[in-house]
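::Amino acid chain::
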Amino acid sequence: MGVGATLEYFSDILRSKKKKKKKLLQTVDLKVRMDCEGCELKIKNALSSLKGVKSVDINRKQNKASVTGYADAKKVLKKARSTGKRAELWPYVPYNLVAHPYAAQVYDKKAPSGYVRKSENTAITAMNPVEEQYTTMFSDDNPNACSIM
């Protein structure tokens, strides 16, 4: 019985080294230029053929393709580009998540309604002292705020 337990112990050690990292279920959003139903079908078929993809949702009005599954974002992007269409990761965030949605680096006329371009620049979101003074002047949190409002 001691030999069997020892063999089982060693086999568990060997199996643990061979295990691959499990991929997490994720949703990858892409911006893909689509003009017609043929383009939409071409993108959907290409993305559905990837290993690990569970579902593909296409929104032609927004030029958006959402891929849900265990596939890597880089592989999904590469497969979308292999169709001959211009593709990039979804560059937009909802309008209400940005402090200054009309700043030059954030506002995009081509963005779908309710979305603005994602910004990594924190200098855009920081308010200067004058802006901060005006926003706190009418704030409910400020005890010395204007009572007319």
Summary: The first strand starts at residue 26 and ends at 32.
